[in-house]
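Board notes, transcribed. Complex of a protein with heme C.
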Amino acid sequence: MAQLPPMATILPKMRLVTLMLLLLAVCLPAADPPRIWDDEALKDWATPVAALGVRPGHYSAAEYYAIPGDNLKTYPVYHPNREPKGYWEWLQKQRPEPLVDASKIRSARDWAAAGQRAFEDLDNVFFRTDDPKLIARARDPEAFKDVFLLPDGSIIGNRWVVTEKGVVLGERECALCHVQFTPSGTVAFGGPAGVEPAGATDRNPAGVNLVPLAYTRFFPGDNFLVALWRSYTVPWNPDPRVEALKEKMTHPPGALFVGDPGTFARFHGSPWAQTKVPDLRGIRYSRYIDASGTHRMRGAEDLARYAAFVNGADPMTFGDHQILTPAQRKIRLRYADEVLYAIGMYLMSLDAPKNPNPAPDARSAAGQKVFQREGCISCHVPPDYTSGKLTLAQGYNPPADHPNADDIVRLSVGTDPELAMRTRKGTGFYKIPTLRGVWTRTRLLHDGSVASLEEMFDPARVQPDHVPGGWKGPAGDRRGIPGHPFGLKLTPEEKAALLAFLRTL
Ligand code: HEC
Ligand code: HEC
């Protein structure tokens, strides 16, 4: 009760109902997060890998909870000339604080609010460093020339983390990638990637690249190249381009992870089969996570598990195939359940943003008719604009007793099968994405090869001399973007109407 203003001053201003609700909220017990790493829920969480017919392995709850959960508040790294007065000295005096304090949480809304902070401010533990040279660099104005600044003068990449051993330099986790730059110069964390800001684009100060350090910690015993190779190698179907990485860097390092401002090669994927950084504002309409539906999405707890999974709760075993060495396979990092659950609750609370400037009604009404006539509704079923189901990647014929059989549409839209068939994310499926909020996306299809709705429904996009507007892929600039033939044979008026309708969703 200590934080409340004296009752006498607020009582007369409040209606009785409000007061009772307030009292109830204060008296409610703090909510404990559910146990995120739950053996029962994990049993049928992951989708089997098509080529093997087995689900990827995971840690048991006993293994997972054998190590303590990380839960540390992080602080902005400012352009040194924009630091609030006395900030650095103030930071040195801070004690470690929880990023998510479950004792203050009483309602679903509290979880979502805490989750927004966690999603935006979480740092990746493997990036933390107390190296005085790097810390000095992150406070040197010379290093900030090409760095994108948020309106308050702070940066997107690095964060300061107050630990038991003092202030260390860290790096943002989720929001480092899940960030949309808007034309007004601000950002929307959780929005789709694809457009870089005009002017300064670097996330981190020059000379502060913590990625190699993090990789060698995540993959102890490996040099950076071997760690890279291990991120993508497919033992049951090796890709010579990935195997070559073990010996030498075949591309500029940036191009390997980030093929395009909107795509990224995550663990288990491939630099040659990248995935777009998707819009998370609308994940609530999905029944599967990732473009290839690697995991079920049954609610906040599955999103929490996914946040754990992409941060090392992943032994990388596939049947008899082990990707990691025994030392690497031991669980070495986990976030506290309250951090993960808060993130899951936050992501579930998000909805796709509505277009502030939709086209006139008559045109979008005509477009809605085209949408129905062309059969789009059979997969992009209103009102979610997805059935939530999985379509087949070209070449996959799942067994009748596939554990996800109820969600499988037995046809292929014929988009590039590389990710779903050849990588460790190779479930054999592409999920049907929701079209809610599609007006704000600048990368379309799983690989982000398409950059606009105009390009998506342009018949020229499938021709071999097409230059993809988004991710160009490994073969160079010109290549047809195959598949998803729906809506490619419309008259110009019908196409304009369809696009106007899609932009209202
Ligand atoms: C290095 C960049 C990067 C970081 C860091 C990152 N993500 Fe992602 N995220 C991606 C990419 C790329 C995909 C698409 C993967 C795919 O489709 O296979 C993705 C997919 C997802 C999805 C699935 C979305 C969908 O539509 O299926 C969720 C949920 C998600 N990320 C949440 C998170 C959370 C939570 C964090 C922090 C714990 C995080 N991500 C950190 C790049 C990143
Ligand atoms: C048979 C099911 C099916 C039908 C019919 C269908 N789609 Fe799709 N659609 C998909 C799948 C699956 C994807 C994702 C493919 C991928 O990522 O490789 C997709 C992707 C899209 C995308 C890109 C979304 C994004 O964020 O990447 C748009 C836009 C789209 N469809 C619109 C339409 C329209 C408009 C129609 C009708 C003219 C239509 N679709 C018909 C299954 C379908």
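Residues 361-388+432-502 form a domain with the Cytochrome Bc1 Complex; Chain D, domain 2 fold (CATH 1.10.760). The two ends are 44 Å apart (CA to CA).
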